[in-house]
Predict the structure.
Amino acid sequence: MNRIQAALTSAAIIIGGIASSASAYVEFLHTNGKPYSTWTAYVSIEDMSSNSNGTAAGNMSPPIAAKDSMFTDGTFFYKITSNAQGDAGQYNNLIVRYQSLADLNHSTGGEVFNMVNYGMYYDDEIIADGATGRFFRTTRYDPNSPVTIGMYAYNSFADLVNNNYFYASGFQNQTVAYDCQFWAVDGKFYRTNVTGKNGATTVTGINVYNSSADLYNGVVAQTIPSKVGYPGSMRFMAVDSSMIPPPVCPGDLNADGEVNAADLAILLSNWGVCPQ
């Protein structure tokens, strides 16, 4: 076992060196657990949909409450949460901004912004479009509504915090369950499809949209089916691979705190000539 561990350590250093010199790429992340305790990352939306070739992308310690949502604008990471007043109701009324995914995972160093004149029902989400700098907020009629009716659009983070939206509309040509999840990266928007009883749904696929207007109007560019059985309450993000913290220990390729057979399996599945 010591030999295997040494080989894995050497391989991790080599792989890390290659990765650091190559161009970064988009990784798709989802949470695990409820409350959320870990992230799993994939190099494509297809891999995430089929739960293929996933790698650990960090632990949340303490775990993040299932009523909270997370998103990124490509620079910062954010958590949508509440103070005592928000917890007493059925809404989140704070946005906490973090400098890194590690800070979000450990709830350290966050800058708190109070949502001015509004709160968000649990399971409502914020989408950041890094390509335009715009932010979008999903909404329902009330906390018991089974349907997300539409979104508000904002030109900046400051406008989002102060609820100075420039556009608001209901979703067209589609019914969106309240626990469908949303995110965006590189100008494309994503939404999960779910089926089942509200509050206990299962993800059946992921829709891809080429613009925010297409998302509003239900113009789907692609649907990627999923038969993994992901819970509808799972949260999703997409980030530049350079924004995901490297493993704490060389050789720990799945970042679970141990160098073991799981890491060897990852190494062997990536064996061969590196892509140019």
